[in-house]
Amino acid sequence: MTGLDTNRTAGVSAGNRAGRGVPARVVAVTVACLLAAVALALVGIAVGSSSLTVPDVVRTLFGGGSPAHELVVFELRLPRVVGGLLVGAALGLAGALTQTFARNPLATPDILGVTSGAALGAVSAIVLAGGSYTVGAGLLTLGLPAVATLGALGTAAVVYGFAWRGGVDSYRLILIGIGATATLGGLTSYLIARAQITEAAAASQWLVGSLSGISWASVWPVLLALVVIVPIALAQSANLGISQLGDDISVGLGVAVQRHRLIVIVCAVVLTAAAVSASGPIEFVAFVAPQIVRRLARTGRPPLVSSALMGAVIVTGGDAFARGVLPGEVPVGIVTAVIGAPYLIWLLTRRKERESLS
Amino acid sequence: MSTSPRPAAPMPAVPAMPPATHPAGALEARGVTLAYERSVVFEGLDLRIETGEITTLIGANGSGKSTLLKAFGRLLAPTAGAVELGGRGIRSMATREVARQLAILPQKPLTPQATSVRDLVSRGRHPHQSLFRPWTPDDSRIVDAALRDTGLTELADRDAASLSGGQLQRAWIALVLAQQAPIILLDEPTTFLDLTHQLDVLRLVRSINRERGATVVMVLHDLTLAGRYSDRLVVVGGGRVIADGAPWEVLTPGILREAFDLDAIVIADPSTGSPLIVPVDPAPDAGTATGNGTGTSARTGMQG
């Protein structure tokens, strides 16, 4: 404890370590997720009623396929697979943001009510506007994402407002979110019960979370959301790391905590709303993807980029699995729920051991 | 109440600051009113922190000493008045700019998961970094030095969550050191530590002050330790500053009774000559006269 002269006599030999760069393990997990996403996308394009081989798909994508293959790949399968990748990425990133911000893996858009808010917005658009998501492309490109975003933002504001007591306690946030989810689910059911039968059927099908109705028109808003939000979210990454130490020390380290929080919440809400308006609520992706990646990468919080990629892997893989292995057209939302719900239970039971965390 | 002026030069010549790009501005509360909800803790308080000194805020439980420290650290907004840093309102300055001049270690920071000690300490460099000024070898050197100064070099690659209480507290202090701010605020840095580790932390704080010339403001419960390691004690209670001065001026039986409801005699510590508080038990037949609290303090030798 002598020689407190920091700048001059520091241990130079050890001083040139990578410092705060991205750890090698995180890079490896990110690359692995990227490769898996690409591979599953190719498989996803190949799988279906008129089956193609993966080499067929690659050939066609690079412009060397037959006209029949081109029709299947570009018109039928590609929007669905690209949509799945983007929706998954949006959900994975949204989950990583909310889990990190609330310092709690249970704090995901699904549980905090944001997804339900987006769903209520979208269902009211489907039911009240009298169109279904397969009809009216105009509603789909403009109306539905906008209404879903409004629903999601409104819910986020209300939940956050109720949870605020001079700071955010993550358990309070989650409990209020669960209440909001139940309330919004009730309202959604009410809307469906009052709706015309065709619209009710469309809304119910949409609520399961499926890629079957996705088209290029519904892919663009998600792409736009990701293009805008990803750089903003990544710019908040360092602040997210600091905020894990607590609010007071974050202020001490020069984080503008209120502004940081607002940015992170808005990013997560916009991503969730964009994903939900394209595909319906695909449950548990936002919850599971960041936690899997965090365990693989052994980091204190979910890495943002690989969480997004893992979300893409789960949705694309789940959809390919549903179409290629399961009989009939099982919506991907059911597959993710079947995987995700047991994982939630497992995580809840394990959580007791380190209750002190929050 | 201490009315005598504090010595003009309480310490040997303070070494020059580390080559900080941001020179120290004085920290000063001007007419500060602090309140939680509707209960006012301080009203119109003036307190100037002298540069280069160790100032310790002491007071009974609920006296508002931590509240005052939070206001100095801009964690709490005064309802009136302002805390100034170098003559500017601290809350009107960019928070990152403040962070380069003033570091604060709050009472209960959260230990992150799966984070090495070095990684944790590295976060102290946050105020010096931005998208356009990423991590540099200089940052690494500063972090290494902070680890060495806190005796954590050997533990640098350990998971922070696996450290003992004393080691962890040193890691947090290392983080604050890595921040390289000329003013350091510490909120009860010795809580939950045994006596050996309390001394360990306070010696570290003193060496930071003596060798780096850092201005330190801290909150402590243990009055004897506060007297031993501080240049100046500020006793708060009842919404005001009860006493303010060098340890021997402040730690008097009269002030101890007023601020802590404590009957004690004060003698010179045989090892350092600093004030040693010796609580006095109430006489058996006068037990009701001095109220509660004194019995407990007699056992522990301290009360705060």
UniProtKB/TrEMBL annotation, chain A:
Pfam families: FecCD (PF01032)
Similarity comment text for this entry: Belongs to the binding-protein-dependent transport system permease family. FecCD subfamily.
Keywords: Cell membrane, Membrane, Transmembrane, Transmembrane helix, Transport
Localization annotation: Cell membrane
Transmembrane parts of this sequence: 26-47, 81-99, 111-133, 139-161, 173-193, 213-235, 332-349
Signal sequence residues: none
Keyword Transmembrane helix (UniProt): yes
Species annotation: Herbiconiux daphne
Name recorded for this polypeptide: Iron ABC transporter permease
Major localization listed first in the record, in broad terms: membrane
Membrane topology: Multi-pass membrane protein
Automatic annotation (TrEMBL), chain B:
Keywords, ordered alphabetically: ATP-binding, Cell membrane, Ion transport, Iron, Iron transport, Membrane, Nucleotide-binding, Transport
Location relative to the cell: Cell membrane
Top-level taxon: Bacteria
Region Disordered, annotated ranges: 282-304
Membrane topology recorded in Swiss-Prot or TrEMBL: Peripheral membrane protein
Transmembrane region(s): none
Pfam families associated with the record: ABC_tran
SMART domains on file: AAA
Major localization listed first in the record, in broad terms: membrane
Coiled-coil intervals: none
Entry GO MF terms: ATP binding
Biased composition (Low complexity): 286-304
Limits of the ABC transporter domain: 27-263
Protein name according to UniProt: ABC transporter ATP-binding protein
